[in-house]
Amino acid sequence: MISVEQAIDIVRINTKPIAAFELKKVKDAYGDILFEDVLSPINMPPFRQSAMDGYALHLNGSDSYRIIGEVKAGDGHHPILKPGEAIRIFTGAPVPDTANALVMQEKTAVDDTRLKLKSEVVQNENIRPLGEQVLKGQTALNKGTHLTAAAIAFLTSLGITDIKVYKKPTIAVVVTGNELVEAGQHLAYGQIYESNATMLSAALKCLEYNNVSIHKVSDDYKSTLHLLNQVISDYDVILISGGISVGDYDFVEKALDEIGVEQLFYKVNQKPGKPLFFGKKESKTVFALPGNPAAALSCFYVYVYPALQKMRGHLDFSLTKAKAISKSNFTINVNRAQFLKAIYTNGEVEILDGQNSSMLHTFALANALAYVPETSGSIKINDMVEVILFPIN
Fold first, then answer.
1. Where is the MoaB/Mog domain (predicted)?
2. Which long-range contacts (CB under 8 A, 24 or more apart) does 371-374 make?
3. What would the DSSP string read from start to end of 211-253?
4. Contacts for 333 with CB less than 8 Å, ≥ 6 apart
5. N or C terminus of the chain with fewer C-beta within 10 Å?
6. Alpha-carbon distance 369 to 346, whole Å?
7. Residue range 321-389 in CATH 2.40.340.10
8. Domain covering 4-19+168-311 assigned CATH 3.40.50.1260 in the classification
């Protein structure tokens, strides 16, 4: 059995971005990761641009100028200003090359075609220079950039319509258990409603994985072996829920070994989620998560989430961590690292009741996991605690 820190390192070392891209329309690439640097095909702005409504001037050292016309946003004409001349101009409009200053309208007085300055004007003031944001041929966005709404707008403003983004790994979720039935069906004695597939699918949607393949298998060795062999052939990442412990009807570890999955670790000194398996078969990645829902979701956030983020090209692939002041006392009864469901607010953390690995109700209220290393025996009020923040989307 290995430590949490060792397990995290093994996952990090053995996952890397998928060396494949897909070409996408910029407008459809929200949430994707750039596969390569994007060079700007134009200067941005593509002309000297007015930063406000006012008057463009050809300075002559005086405070009085003759107004010879106007330029509004979208105009394509290029008035020539002689020293002592001005034009009315509006935000976003092209500034004539012969203008060397721009004064906001509030700092002027106008009488017919004469403009009088109310204050001193600085040369090139309020003029956005050609290529102020990016010059033609320069890197607009770097490889690994997460394409937010602002990034997509920026690329679109450069006239770019298609980009290469990292291809996301395909994912299969395999749920094991004879006792599981679908919600909405009759619940017989001894059965429970299956929730892990829905839970993991919802967690994956935070990573923009919307086409996750769901598979269910009974606690039977031949069926488990057949299904796992199939999904490992067809998908890049396999998340298995349950069947990985040491019970008489837990067949996942044996089946993975027979299929030829290399075990990189099995069992982590943590609570919840001790029976966690991580392995590889060639380019395929396998996580076998505990069947208890809260344990499975804790392992997802700590290990699976950063692995998937790294695979799809994210430079910052782990969940956000913070230090927080504990508002709770909590006694640790086992010599294992703890991931405790908690509520984090403004630098403080409250450890919730109901930390059992099967309890989702507490998890539904939490927005963070408080991490307690295996060497710590308890948490006291006002102790400084490390917290792992859940994604907010």
1. 172-310
2. 371/4, 371/337, 371/338, 371/339, 371/340, 372/330, 372/332, 372/337, 372/338, 372/340, 373/4, 373/337, 374/3, 374/4, 374/269, 374/270, 374/335, 374/336, 374/337
3. --EEEEE-S-HHHHHHHHHHHHHH-SEEEEES--SSSTT--HH
4. none
5. C
6. 15
7. yes
8. no
Question: Where in the chain are the domains?
Answer: 4-19+168-311, 23-41+144-166, 49-128, 321-389
Mean pLDDT (whole number) for 241-267:
89
Tokens representing 111 are 């009488």
Whole-angstrom distance, CA of residue 350 vs CA of residue 328? 6
Helix (H) or strand (E) holding 271: strand 270-271
User: What are 23-54's pLDDT values in tens digits?
Assistant: 999 999 998 999 999 999 999 999 999 999 99
Contacts of 195 (CB under 8 A, 6+ apart): 183, 293, 360
Sequence-distant (6+) residues with CB within 8 A of 24 are: 32, 162, 163, 164, 165
Find, among 265, 389, 248, the residue nearest to 256 by Cα: 265
Helical (H) or strand (E) element with 152: helix 149-157
pLDDT higher at 68 or 184: 68
CATH fold of 49-128 reads Molybdopterin biosynthesis moeA protein; domain 3 (2.170.190)
Residue 298 near residue 372 (C-beta atoms within 8 A): no
- pLDDT for 244: 87
Residues near 196 by beta carbon (within 8 Å), at least 6 away in sequence: 173, 175, 241, 242, 289, 291, 293, 296
206-218 average pLDDT score: 89
CB atoms within 10 A of CB 210: 10
Q: What token pair was written down for 206?
A: 């935070």
- In this structure, are residues 154 and 29 in contact, taking their beta carbons and an 8 Å threshold? no
Q: For residue 308, give the amino acid letter.
A: L
What are the Cα distances from residue 116, in Å, to 70, 89, 103, 122?
16, 16, 11, 15
Tokens of 217: 């298998």
Residue 367, pLDDT > 70, answer: yes
